[in-house]
Amino acid sequence: MGLSAEQLKGSLDALAGIEPAIAAALESCGYPEPRISNPGYVTLLRAIVGQQVSIKAAAAIWDRVDAVTGGAHDPVKVAAASLEDLRGAGLSWSKAAYAHSLAEEVTTGRLNLEALPADDEEAIAALTHVKGIGRWSAEVYLLFAEGRPDIWPAGDLAVQIETGRILGLDSKPTEKQTRAVAEPWRPHRGAAAIFAWHHRRQSNILGKG
């Protein structure tokens, strides 16, 4: 499961002691709520189904995939479904192939979601071996579903923007710069990412976005 409220608070308090700008932002925005997903195959399949569509559309497509496969939660049934059936349920051809890839990786044991490598980069590599799972999706899975404390999705646009705002930079940092400025924040970068998303929401609420 993801980082708990207690873990988030502890990590953010530690970050506030390292970086005064984070301390000031934390004073202004408060602590974020935990962001938690269930670990396992279903969460990854839902991520594939939900790519580039609305939450409502993703839910409707999921229900149709569930019906056509006889149980979308079961990778054996998804692997057995034809690409045409998955396409008919509302998935694009590429997403149908991604769903098949994920189901096959899980059913064959090539991807063991209950025993991903302890090293974060190795775990990301294992997840991105699946067609349709990019680095960002892998990082978000490891952060929200496994609660790995030092995951830092520096390629995320919102993380880049809010890191720049929090630190008072003149412009949005690049992915490389976002990784560099966060090096002193190890091993608490997962909490920093969650706080960046929280900071963005709060700024939008206050009309500062």
Put the structure in a nutshell.
By secondary structure, the chain is an all-alpha fold. It contains twelve helices and no strands.
What would your notes on this structure say?
By secondary structure, the protein is mainly alpha-helical. It folds into two domains: about 5-35 and about 150-205, Endonuclease Iii, domain 2 (Orthogonal Bundle); about 40-135, Endonuclease III, domain 1, CATH 1.10.340. It contains twelve helices and no strands. The longest helix has 17 residues, at about 190-205.
* Share of residues in strands: under 5%
Percent in helix: 55-70%
Give the overall shape, derived from the CA principal axes: elongated
Succession of helices and strands? HHHHHHHHHHHH
Low-confidence stretches: none
Mean pLDDT: 95
What is the end-to-end distance?
30 Å
Q: How many domain modules? A: 2
Count helical runs. 12
Largest sheet: number of strands, sense, barrel closure:
none
User: How does CATH name the architecture of the largest domain?
Assistant: Orthogonal Bundle
What structural class do helix, strand and pairing data support? mainly alpha
> Superfamily at the CATH H level of the largest domain?
Hypothetical protein, domain 2
